[in-house]
Specification:
Rna Polymerase Sigma Factor, Chain: A, Arc Repressor Mutant, subunit A, mainly alpha, 10 helices
Length: 184
Amino acid sequence: MKDEAVSQAIQNGDERVIHAVITKYSKLLWRIAEAVLQTVGSEQDMEECVADTFIYLWENPEKYDPRRGSLKTWLSIVARSKSTDRCRALARNSTVPLEEGVWAEQTGLLDGLLARDARQELLEAVSTLEEPDRQILIRRYEYGQKPREIALALGLSVKQVNNRLYRAKRKLRDLLTHCKEAYP
């Protein structure tokens, strides 16, 4: 069945055609959602993005114009858009625990590298940072998020994240150096 006929059948409410479209394109749309959400989303998020794409087609069949491209391409773009929106929502809604106890618990890497006093000094120095600098630093070095992910989550540009990260590290270095000089 040609894309024009599929579009018309869906506009007429033909459920058999939408089921055929789902069967034909679900694996492709799943791969698209997975590519976008692989680092931040769950399998359920990917599944919902694919389902949302087909629901969008069912509820808005007039939005697809067969003269502008294939149904496969249009569905792929919608799936990417739905997945990107979900990715942004997940990044925006993800919280980073900033409490000292949680931070200390999750610094397994530091356990072997820093003595207890040095770790305490680091925690105190991090707690002196203002937001969003503290959150940027924790997201980058504790959770391994890339500057682009941090920028997306905090509504900043990548350049702002990199600049704030640089200044926060310099401030921490100055604070910790000053503490060592003051208390040898």
